[in-house]
Design brief:
By secondary structure, the protein is of the alpha+beta class. 50% of the residues lie in helices and 11% in strands. It has 19 helices and ten strands. The strands form three sheets. The chain has a four-stranded mixed beta sheet, with no helix packed on it. A hairpin with a 2-residue loop joins strand 6 and strand 7. Helix 2 crosses helix 5 and helix 14 runs antiparallel to helix 15. The longest helix has 23 residues. The radius of gyration is 26 Å and the shape is globular.
Length: 444
């Protein structure tokens, strides 16, 4: 890109926040447009990658767009107060528990502007957020929230109040959100721009829809706005002396008795509906034992963090898809995608007390992979030849290759286990849940 100081600096140097003004400063808009802040925003958007928005521009295509001088026009429109964000592109992704979650993908240009705003606003709002809020905050994550719940349960609060907010991101009241935002932000131009992003609309199946409420998931600014919206809830829970943990719109309150839990559920539901104008899903909101609760994919038994049964089933279903014997891709690619998923999954869910279960799942996964190999070899002649290449005696190889057993049963036979041994699969790139768990709990 040309002249990075006057346009969009995408340099590789890390820029520290040394130029932010006090929280109630009236020139936050200028801070947002400072070259150093824009450079950091571009670096973050580039690192996150993501799909193109409604204009079709990709992250890779953005530098050329800047060099053409188009960014100068956008910046001029921002300064003049005439810039209009483009609608977000609506897509739907599969939810782990079934159903679909709508996401709004802003254009790359709008993602950078939103990220630049978030970088200015986060130091203003984040220090005042509750210590019990863990979602989308610097230095905080879902694992910390789960461990916090475990600590609360050990205080003999074994009844969980699970309040489910129905389509929270789609139902945020714009007027209330802007009112909460105005408590700390006095810059009218910045508030005007945020309001325009809230009302930018969505393109769904090539049809434009206006947005009179909600904060579309997918934009860099949305997580911060969600925390601003729910911060009054955190403060109310603290005021009432409740023990809880919240990650975005997923929160759980721990109490000592069923009666207290039912009272809290009714009271907090009323507060959310009347004060924050949010909708409660009465069918999913419940008061249960901590061992029957679900929080961020985990449950809690005898004071220990465990995988929720749905989490385990979702994991196994995804492994079935990745080791599908009829996928039609090479085994190298199949092992790469399977290992990529396993590695990311255990890095998050590995905090649970699940060593033995990891060992059992590893055994099941390896059998699934052997089945996929067996299916890909297809013809008996190919099976026999490959088994012999991998060290299986000719008689055992022929017996395996000519068997009438199906791929799943065959994957358990001694000949195939000898050829496709644990060591062979590890060398081929298959990672182990057990090894990932040990690495998390017993780092060198």
């Amino acid at each position: 890109m040309s002249d990075l100081n006057t346009r969009m600096p995408p340099g590789n140097d890390v820029v520290q926040r040394t130029d932010l003004k006090p929280a109630f400063s009236d020139n936050l808009f200028e801070q947002m447009l400072q070259p150093a802040n824009l450079q950091r925003a571009w670096k973050q958007v580039r690192a996150n990658r993501g799909a193109a928005g409604v204009d079709g521009m990709t992250v890779d295509g953005f530098p050329a767009w800047v060099k053409s001088g188009e960014w100068d026009k956008v910046k001029a429109a921002l300064c003049a107060g005439t810039y209009r964000p483009q609608p977000v592109r609506r897509v739907e992704i599969e939810k782990p528990g079934g159903g679909k979650r709508p996401l709004g993908i802003p254009t790359v240009i709008d993602r950078i502007i939103q990220q630049a705003m978030a970088q200015v606003l986060t130091p203003i709002f984040d220090p005042a957020f509750s210590a019990h809020s863990y979602g989308f905050r610097p230095g905080r994550n879902g694992q910390q929230a789960v461990k916090r719940v475990q600590q609360i349960i050990k205080q003999k609060r074994r009844i969980a109040v699970d309040v489910d907010l129905s389509k929270f991101f789609d139902r945020v009241n714009h007027d209330l959100l802007m009112s909460l935002l105005s408590r700390r932000v006095h810059d009218k131009r910045l508030k005007q721009l945020i309001g325009r992003y809230l009302r930018a609309g969505v393109i769904d199946s090539q049809l434009y829809q206006e947005t009179h409420e909600g904060v579309p998931q997918g934009g860099p600014l949305s997580p911060l706005l969600a925390n601003i919206m729910l911060d009054p809830l955190d403060k109310e829970l603290e005021k009432r002396g409740h023990q809880f943990a919240r990650y975005a719109d997923d929160f759980i309150i721990l109490v000592k008795s069923q009666r207290a839990g039912e009272r809290v559920l009714k009271s907090i539901s009323g507060y959310l509906e009347s004060r924050l104008q949010l909708v409660i899903n009465s069918e999913k909101s419940q008061v249960v034992k901590a061992s029957e609760s679900k929080f961020l994919g985990f449950t809690f038994r005898s004071g220990r963090i465990q995988w929720h049964p749905k989490t385990l089933e979702n994991f196994k279903q995804r492994i079935r898809e990745l080791t599908n014997r009829n996928w039609g891709v090479s085994m190298d690619y199949q092992l790469f995608k399977t290992s990529q998923y396993i590695r990311g999954w255990i890095n998050y869910f590995g905090i649970a007390n699940c060593y033995q279960l990891c060992c059992e799942l590893d055994h099941w996964i390896r059998r699934r992979v052997r089945m996929a190999y067996w299916r890909q070899w297809r013809k008996p002649r190919t099976k026999v030849r490959n088994l012999m290449k991998l060290g299986v005696h000719v008689q055992a190889a022929v017996a395996c290759g000519l068997t009438s057993k199906g791929p799943w049963r065959s994957a358990k036979t001694p000949g195939i286990n000898q050829a496709l041994s644990d060591a062979y699969l590890k060398q081929a790139g298959l990672v182990s849940l057990r090894d990932g768990w040990i690495k998390l709990h017993y780092p060198e």
